[in-house]
Amino acid sequence: MFEIKISQEIKDACPVFAGVAVYAKVRNTPFSEGLWTEIEAFTEELTTNSRIEDIKLQPVIAATREAYKRCGKDPGRYRPSSEALRRRLLRGIPLYRIDTLVDLINLVSLRTGHSIGGFDADKIVGNYLELGIGKAAEPFEGIGRGVLNIEGLPVYRDAVGGIGTPTSDHERTKMDIETTHILALINGYNGKDGLKEAAEMTQELLAKYAEGTEFEVCFYE
Fold first, then answer.
1. Which of 5, 57, 168, 185 measures 20 to 30 Å from 156, CA to CA?
2. 102 close to 168: Cβ distance less than 8 angstroms
3. How many domains does the chain have?
4. What are the mean pLDDT values of the chain's consecutive 10-residue runs (221 residues total)?
5. 18 - beta bridge partners?
6. What range defines the domain where residue 183 resides?
């Protein structure tokens, strides 16, 4: 498991921040029918019981949006991934089918409201990560987004540079069909509430749909 540090600038901007890391050995697949049955059930529940204007009121999403403002980013222009996923569904647009690991992380994010970074652990450089705030002109290639302006966004960095923000993760450390070790970072900008449950959900889904074993879980703040 990687050591994860929280920078002073994040502590100043979001004093209640807490996170949990889930590491596991996995086998990725292009598609899991059982997982997509769960995703479709959640989609039905969300679209039946929620309105698009309610999304930003969900407590975890609201706290993440507030953290963006405190770090210097407009959450209306750069949405946290959990908010963006819910908005997509409520606009009647189906989720992309990427692969089992990515789809699984998206489901946990949708259910909990936490923005979750899902990384190929073997692509991370060094033995620790630090959560800081993005700098002006800091290079960052978002997955499927090209160059992303991460100034003012919370960002995890390894020994090389940024690997993940609550809006998008980096191409360099993204999961793919060859991924055999996952690191999922669950971000609690509202504090510790719900982190244990989100970590347990992640482990259960990884065991069920990605042959997850050798789990390690680490809470940090």
1. 57
2. no
3. 1
4. 96 98 98 98 97 96 97 96 98 97 98 98 97 98 96 98 98 98 98 98 98 98 96
5. 188
6. 3-220
